[in-house]
Design brief:
The structure is a single chain. By secondary structure, the protein is an alpha/beta fold. The protein is built from 8 helices and 13 strands. The protein has helices at residues 2-7, 54-66, 108-124, 142-156, 190-203, 237-246, 264-267, 298-314; strands spanning 15-16, 18-19, 35-36, 47-50, 70-73, 102-104, 126-135, 209-216, 223-231, 250-252, 273-280, 287-294, 330-331. It has a 6-stranded mixed beta sheet. A 5-stranded parallel beta sheet has the order 1-13-4-5-6, with helices on both faces. It has a two-stranded parallel ribbon with strand order 2-3. Helix 3 (108-124) runs parallel beside helix 5. The longest helix is centred in the middle third of the chain and has 17 residues, at 108-124. It is globular and about 60 Å long. The mean pLDDT is 96. The structure holds NADP nicotinamide-adenine-dinucleotide phosphate. Residues 18-20, 22-23, 37, 51-54, 56, 74-75, 107-108, 139, 141, 296-297, 300-301 line the site of NADP nicotinamide-adenine-dinucleotide phosphate.
Length: 332
Amino acid sequence: MLALLRERGFPAREIVPFASERSVGRVLEGGLVVQALSDDAIQGFDLALFSAGGSTSGEWAPKFAQAGAIVIDNSSRWRMQEDVPLVVSEVNPEALDAHHGIIANPNCSTMQMVVALKPLHDEATIERLVVCTYQAVSGTGRRAVDELLDQSHALLHDRDIESPSEYEHQIAFNVLPHAGSFAEGEDHTDEERKLMDETRKILGDPSIRISATCVRVPVLNGHSEAVNVQTRDPLSPERARELLAAAPGVAVLDDPASALYPLAINASGHDDVFVGRIRRDPGHERALDLWIVADNLRKGAATNAVQLAELLDARGLIGTRSVGDRPARSAV
Ligand SMILES: NC(=O)c1ccc[n+]([C@@H]2O[C@H](COP(=O)([O-])OP(=O)(O)OC[C@H]3O[C@@H](n4cnc5c(N)ncnc54)[C@H](OP(=O)(O)O)[C@@H]3O)[C@@H](O)[C@H]2O)c1
């Protein structure tokens, strides 16, 4: 998020990085020094970008909001709360206007999917989705990336792997039908539930029926998704291709005869959502199949958070919750 604020030239007068006690005093690129959270330290901010997990967010987001900041939160803590807008910059930016101090950034696999689905929903009204994800290990975090690399290295050198700590099973050279976790008595993972619930909230249509299987694959970065889209009105693959080509934040890569379709390794490092393999579902006259790929750390997380900050700025919403007369600041 810090890199993206810099890269996109976000007009902050001051940026203050916060992390846990163990990182206090660490000097980041550009000379910013990591601070600890305290009731005093969080005063006077206009914006706070959070990516510290649900429990930290549960405790500190309301405190930042109380102190006058607008919080953009990456965790799942606030996403389904009714008075918290859940926003994707290309899909429902108008939802920002109703915020009460906290705005939620969606789950990565939901984010990339709704960017591609929005123009199709506007044109033909989506009735049902069947989604299978192929999610990269970077979505789990840095330790999971290390685990995949360590296991791959060991196996390629005929060594035994250490017992997995980030996943239930070996991830290298394997496919795990278990992205997220199973709550007691649940037959879907929390990742699958997020995909279903958040998609309906962002598209503003609780009637969309969704079936999801979220799968972890040994890919370093970039989530891929096979999505079957059933619409109320007829929609041809040609028209869908046209709509997607004109949609903001979407790039169509669709020439299978030349082996051209979106790939995780090519999407990684980019902000667009890439769509290809756009074709008629032979099993249903009003359904299409799509292949959707994006960088889960960029558009799936940090890019959208910074885009929301930019939209708040463009809509004149920053500074409106300020307390007293003091310079604009951002906390990350
Ligand atoms: N990564 C993704 O693709 C992605 C996408 C969407 C949403 N999310 C969500 O975003 C959240 C964070 O994920 P992440 O991958 O960014 O995690 P991460 O790399 O582990 O970073 C977490 C950050 O939070 C800080 N932190 C932890 N506990 C804290 C505390 N008590 N007080 C202050 N700071 C604290 C950590 O500080 P230290 O540096 O000191 O440890 C670290 O800087 C999760 O809820 C995740 O589900 C992640």
